[in-house]
């Protein structure tokens, strides 16, 4: 595991910044080297906020692409949770983030529960609800938001 850079104990992270750095070290190192550092050179010496947000944007887009390819529908919940809410947690002040590991685990569990529920709801809506749009737009527009149940044989 150490050869792959998986030696860090992400489960003991006391902030989301530490969690994101240690969760997947290989991906973190790639994003740091090829996205963050390059954008730091572009925006230097102004701020590190923009490069950090661009790293989250790139990562969120790639994760969303993988899920859309896997599930065969686009449902941007992970993009919003990871790219929006998750990215904002990195900028918490140390005294708020100092509550540490308990808050990190609580938010991690709640977030994963919400994401699992949302993607499951959309998956079953795709099975049980009528397609109301042409196939191109149906890929992007969630059926769970305006479900018209399929007619059963008995009706």
TrEMBL record:
Transmembrane stretches, start-end: 49-67, 73-92, 104-125
One Pfam family this sequence matches: MBOAT
Acyltransferase is among the record's keywords: yes
Membrane topology: Multi-pass membrane protein
One CC-aspect GO term: endoplasmic reticulum membrane
GO BP, sorted A to Z: cholesterol metabolic process
Cellular compartment(s): Endoplasmic reticulum membrane
One of the record's GO molecular function terms: O-acyltransferase activity
PANTHER family, sorted: O-ACYLTRANSFERASE, STEROL O-ACYLTRANSFERASE
Family designation: Belongs to the membrane-bound acyltransferase family. Sterol o-acyltransferase subfamily.
Protein name: Sterol O-acyltransferase
